[in-house]
Amino acid sequence: xxxxxxxxxxxxxxxxxxxxxxxxxxxxxxxxxxxxxxxxxxxxxxxxxxxxxxxxxxxxxxxxxxxxxxxxxxxxxxxxxxxxxxxxxxxxxxxxxxxxxxxxxxxxxxxxxxxxxxxxxxxxxxxxxxxxxxxxxxxxxxxxxxxxxxxxxxxxxxxxxxxxxxxxxxxxxxxxxxxxxxxxxxxxxxxxxxxxxxxxxxxxxxxxxxxxxxxxxxxxxxxxxxxxxxxxxxxxxxxxxxxxxxxxxxxxxxxxxxxxxxxxxxxxxxxxxxxxxxxxxxxxxxxxxxxxxxxxxxxxxxxxxxxxxxxxxxxxxxxxxxxxxxxxxxxxxxxxxxxxxxxxxxxxx
Length: 349
Ligand SMILES: NC(=O)c1ccc[n+]([C@@H]2O[C@H](COP(=O)([O-])OP(=O)(O)OC[C@H]3O[C@@H](n4cnc5c(N)ncnc54)[C@H](O)[C@@H]3O)[C@@H](O)[C@H]2O)c1
Prior knowledge:
By secondary structure, this protein is α/β, with parallel strands linked by helices. It has two domains: 2-122 and 293-313, Rossmann fold (3-Layer(aba) Sandwich), CATH 3.40.50; 125-284, 2-Layer Sandwich (Dihydrodipicolinate Reductase, domain 2), CATH 3.30.360. It is built from nine helices and 16 strands. The chain has a ten-stranded mixed sheet. Strands 3-2-1-4-5-6 form a six-stranded parallel sheet, sandwiched between helices. Helix 1 packs parallel to helix 2 (35-42). 45% of the residues are buried.
């Protein structure tokens, strides 16, 4: 698969290397408005000068490609993604997909009409920790999930667009964690309530910390989320620390370790692939994956394309994760619970 990558900044420089090294993709071109970013991304992989572009339209007109990776700041995702779709390319677009669910839905509809694929790079899904948790849940080890507690704490200094956003934590970061609720835990929240704030020591212009609560239909499962991008306390991994309690058992997932506590003590003696640690706790080794994180995302994109199916984290699927994000943002303003709504897509071709 020949891929045009649009955006060669902080995240794009790593992406170019992933596409360059991945066995089933070829980096057809890199586009960036900024010459220094273009050099930073293309020099380490010796991308020839005739495959480096400052203007997207020039790349689309001069390079043969099958797909585009959109890794520009969120406020330009829609314009770039739409131009690539209209040029006949499948698209892999970075999170957060679009500045609103409605704008994201328009891209999904247009891609359907053109017969093209849209996948959002919820790259966190494609890691060993979350996939281990997902396997346990899919095997019924937890039963029906009723309570989830999530804590996220990091203190990165990025500069750039994140420090200008009104809600950087919820919109640019928590999208990964909210997406885990759906893509890993299999929950579909229908209501959210959130508050956000900016600690006095924050270097972000907008709110770098937030609390959120989610409920699934009828309150069957309840989730509490606490996040900070300016943490002065113990840091979690980027995935966050998770406690998941259900009718059959519970999972503690933190720092890439997965512990399982079955409610039925008899089950702690033997569970395939797990080891008893005492006190009713089992250590669950991480699953192995053919490719991980961005390479895992690419693997899913290429595999789905080859198999003629929708990829996990498709554009359409992502509308619901995005709705959790913008529902949470709305709640920070109204102070009320917000019902999660996703616009009905118009007739599909
Ligand atoms: N999946 C993840 O874990 C993850 C991690 C980091 C960033 N991201 C996402 O990746 C995206 C990019 O983030 P970043 O940190 O690399 O941002 P960045 O600001 O460092 O880089 C963006 C680059 O895009 C270029 N650009 C802007 N508009 C352009 C246009 N119209 N055409 C061509 N180039 C253009 C800029 O010159 C810049 O070099 C964001 O959506 C961000 O949320 C995802």
